[in-house]
Amino acid sequence: MIKNLLVFGGNGFLGRRICQTAVENGFEVTSLTRSGTAPKAKALWEKKWIDQVKWRQCDVLDPKTYSQYLQNANNVVHSIGILLEDSSYKTQLSGNLAFDAKKLLKWGPNPMKSNPNFTYDVMNRQSALTLAQELTNFQNSASEGGQRKTMTYISADRSFPGIPKGYIESKRAAEVGIMRLEKQLRPILMRPGFMFDELDASVGKLDPRTQIKHLLDFANWGNSWILGRKINCVNQLIRPSVSTQQVSRALIQKIEDPTFEGVVSLEQIIKA
């Protein structure tokens, strides 16, 4: 059987690494996004895997724009979501800004005036459940030997200080909805923590995301060596960062294990 992977949000911060890791593991990969464009290569060698991915356009909220791709898809990944109900935070996290925690939580004007779909409920929950439900329509015609298609959802370990509770609530609601379809699909629920990209870290890039990673690493060092990880409330608050490459490796491992389904915790991701 040909290994294939359909990634919704494949040109995003995590999605691009999922596509890369899948290509490197012998998968035929198709990425579906609103723009349908390939991500910009961060290094010359990246062009090799980018050229092997089929970059296509769709609207995840409108199944008619992508149903034809689900027919022969054995594995589907939902890598679409928002941390805040304001699109400007993504630009600031990837920009060259001096770190300012207060500024990073003041992301700018409310985009809801122009984009009513940019909400936790729509982007984190509804888009995932719309995709999962549409995928079940093709389960019988595309399955081989009774195998269920995999539906992987990028959830979250937990919320972050200063982030509205609607973020993690929408993630958990999506998980519950996907698990209800487990008789038709094999659900894989990834729960990463704060993510960074190893390529950015290796070149010493000091964008806000990398600076937050350094702060988390320092906090975890202090919790381990000074507090000995003996205070449970501190352990719950200070969680390790994880690279997009680690998340992608863990995701592919779980997809390739036909016996696995359910939640992949942050600790499991880090060990991958």
From TrEMBL:
Pfam families: Epimerase
InterPro entries per the UniProt record, alphabetical: ComplexI_NDUFA9_subunit (IPR051207), Epimerase_deHydtase (IPR001509), NAD(P)-bd_dom_sf (IPR036291)
One MF annotation (Gene Ontology) recorded for this entry: protein-containing complex binding
Annotated ranges, domain NAD-dependent epimerase/dehydratase: 6-79
GO cellular component labels: mitochondrion
Xref: Gene3D superfamilies: NAD(P)-binding Rossmann-like Domain
GO biological process: ubiquinone biosynthetic process
PANTHER family xrefs: MIOREX COMPLEX COMPONENT 2, NADH-UBIQUINONE OXIDOREDUCTASE 39 KDA SUBUNIT-RELATED
Official protein name in the record: LALA0S07e07514g1_1
Source organism (scientific name): Lachancea lanzarotensis
